[in-house]
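Incident log, structure service

09:12 report received: a user says their structure output differs between two submissions of the same chain.
09:20 pulled the input from the user's history:
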Amino acid sequence: MATSNERDKEQGKAHLAMKTPPIVSQKEWEAAREQMLVKEKAVMHARDALAAERRRMPWMAVEKAYAFEGPQGKVGLLDLFEGRPQLIVYRAFFEPGVFGWPDHACRGCSLGADQVSHLAHLNTRDTTLAWASRAPQADIARLKARMGWEMPWYTMLDSFDVDFGVDQWHGHNAFFRDGDKVFRTYFINSRGDEAMGSVWSYLDMTALGRQETWEDSPEGYPQTAPYKWWNWHDNYDAEASSPNPQWVDITTDPAGAAIRRREAEAKAS
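09:34 re-ran on a clean worker, output below:
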């Protein structure tokens, strides 16, 4: 059996055989990077525009009362919201017949679970993330403890997966709650799931979006200033406080902030 050092050497040889891009000077590299940055910003703005269209998508009323089992017993779809207006449900494959059972969930779903950002940031934007599988709660609890995952994870007890397009493949369904009425607002699956995991990718698929003032959202949608709601994940329950003005300056105008910092340092010296 090859040792780690032997494998590294073989991989190194393979890398040397690669047809790499040209090697250039710092000036040429920065010029190439600036050209790429123009394209990257265009993609970013197109993504923002797509999210704005998503916030204007029609909603579908959820008429059926779906049943799940959680750590405290049987619950309904409304309970999964945990009192918040928005809910994202990811259908993970962890159940008999799935590769890895009973020690592991599906490899792809598990990779996705490792990328889930801290839920406090989503929760403060009135959004709940939940996972759902067909495995019993005892197995789900054991798996979460083994892998260090903390997202709420429920057992599906009826046709929820079939009705929402996740019986044969993974996917994220977004819902909005208006009192006791529930609406399906969006659905992402297949390679779209690759981008999920950050607080931004989750919020961008919801009906309300990031809820920041720069967003193009329908009239009356909740919005607050960007950056000012950001917090440490263990501090959202503390008394609200304004961020350091220097931090806001850096995040809203990084180039200008750098110039002002250098000018201040020059005056002080």
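09:41 both user submissions now match this output. Likely a transient worker issue. Closing.
09:42 reviewer note: The longest strand covers residues 181-189. The chain is about 40% helix and 15% strand.
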